[in-house]
Structure formats: structure tokens, C-alpha cells
Design brief:
244 residues, 2 strands, Four Helix Bundle (Hemerythrin (Met), subunit A), Arc Repressor Mutant, subunit A, two-stranded antiparallel ribbon, mainly alpha, 2 domains
């Protein structure tokens, strides 16, 4: 596989190829995310991005608690490229870059920037989701600005812009809204505490921990078929017990 090929595209190509081959006809339920991840040697996050991409294009339907079903394989028609970057690969990049940004900021941050971060934490508690999310974005950009490095500010800004600009990343984030506000607030507080202590190592780790938690939250909130897999295993076990 070429390094420039997106991993989720590999999953899409496999699934659609199997659809056209008749392995997964219209109405068929696709294998579980875990099975696809193992057979294609990719992460569950990559499979999740691929399935959401296929749903956006009308190829499959994701039924909560039931699984992923084939709807219209012909709907693909070369539209994958338009989806661009997925939420999980974007977060992977942010985890690598923003952790180092936080470490550098811890060495250079000024008192007024710490005060601004404190104020943004307060805004993040706002009941309006749009206001809270904007404060979240501004919090991360403020840390980048605290490095005094214009290149880092530009990179972090671009990463956040991708979240809104790329259809796949935007869709996954929209589906995952809500349910973790207090946790996210505490994670940001931990980052701020490390910055205030001017501790680069703790700032780096706090940012990594925060973005790891965001990844886990997205996985949990966009769960596609694990519940169905559990139900299937339970039914099989029940059948063995009852001799069916």
C-alpha cells in the first residue's frame, strides 16, 4: 500500500469490492468493525471512518445497535476523494503536533496568556454548544500563540480548520457531540495547570492524554456494530445451551 493512500480508503475499496463481487449484496449486513479491522490490519478507528464515509455517500446504512447494511454500492462512483481527511487521522496528527506545542508553550507562556486560557475554560461551560466549541478551539490556538512561533500557530490553525472543512471529519465530530463536557473541561484544566507550572513534560503528556480521550469519546459515540456483535454472540450461546 502506498504511504499516500488513506487507510480508510483501503477499507472502503475492500468493502465495495466485496459488494460488487456479490459477497455483500444489497440488504446484507457487513462484518463487524472488529473483524474488518483484524482482517485488513487496520485500527477500529480507521474502519469507523470508512463506514461513516460510506454512509455519507449512501452506500451503507448504519443502524444503531444492529449493524451496517448495504444499501446502494453503485452510489460510490469515485466520490471518496471529496471526503478528504477523517476525524481520527486528524486527531492522530493533532496528538503528535499539539503535544509538542504545549511543551514549548510551557516554557514561554506569559501571565496574560494564562489569564486568557482561564477565561476560555469558563466559556467552555456555556450551554450553547457552538459557543463552547469555539472556546475549545480558541484554547488550543492560544496555547499555540504562547509558543511565539508563527509556524506552529499556522499549523495548529490549519488542523482545526480541517475539522470543519472536511466532510468526513465534520460528520464524525457532529455525531459525537455531547455527553463528555465535564471530562473535557477537566482535561483542559490539567493542561492549563501544567502550563502554569511551566512544566514541559507534564504539559506534553496532559495534551496527549486529552486528545487520547477525545479519540476514545469519538469511538464510543459513533459505535456502529459492537452491540449487535454482543447480541449475536449471546444468541449463539443461548442456542448451544438450548440445543438449537
Amino acid at each position: 500500500m502506498a504511504h499516500s493512500e488513506k487507510l480508510y480508503r483501503r477499507v472502503i475499496d475492500f468493502a465495495v469490492g466485496q459488494m460488487h463481487a456479490g459477497t455483500f449484496p444489497i440488504g446484507a449486513r457487513l462484518p463487524t468493525e472488529r473483524d474488518l479491522a483484524e482482517s485488513l490490519a487496520v485500527s477500529r478507528a480507521t474502519v469507523r471512518e470508512a463506514m461513516v464515509a460510506l454512509e455519507i455517500m449512501g452506500v451503507v446504512e448504519i443502524r444503531k445497535g444492529s449493524g451496517i447494511y448495504v444499501v446502494a454500492p453503485s452510489a460510490l462512483k469515485g466520490r471518496v476523494a471529496a471526503l478528504d481527511i477523517g476525524a481520527f487521522e486528524l486527531l492522530e496528527a493533532r496528538r503528535s503536533i499539539e503535544a509538542e506545542v504545549a511543551a514549548l508553550a510551557a516554557q514561554r507562556i506569559a501571565a496574560d496568556e494564562l489569564a486568557e486560557l482561564e477565561a476560555l475554560l469558563e466559556v467552555m461551560t456555556h450551554e450553547d454548544v457552538a459557543v463552547s466549541e469555539r472556546a475549545d478551539r480558541d484554547f488550543h490556538l492560544c496555547i499555540a500563540k504562547a509558543t511565539g512561533n508563527a509556524a506552529m500557530v499556522s499549523v495548529v490553525t490549519d488542523l482545526w480548520n480541517m475539522r470543519d472543512r472536511c466532510p468526513l471529519a465534520r460528520t464524525i465530530h457532529q455525531r459525537a457531540r455531547g455527553g463528555d463536557e465535564l471530562l473535557r473541561l477537566n482535561e483542559h484544566r490539567t493542561v492549563l495547570d501544567a502550563l502554569r507550572a511551566q512544566d514541559p513534560d507534564h504539559a506534553r503528556q496532559a495534551m496527549r492524554d486529552h486528545l487520547d480521550a477525545v479519540i476514545e469519546h469519538l469511538l464510543a459515540k459513533t459505535e456502529c456494530d459492537e452491540l449487535a456483535a454482543v447480541r449475536l454472540r449471546s444468541a449463539e450461546r443461548r442456542g448451544r445451551i438450548l440445543g438449537k
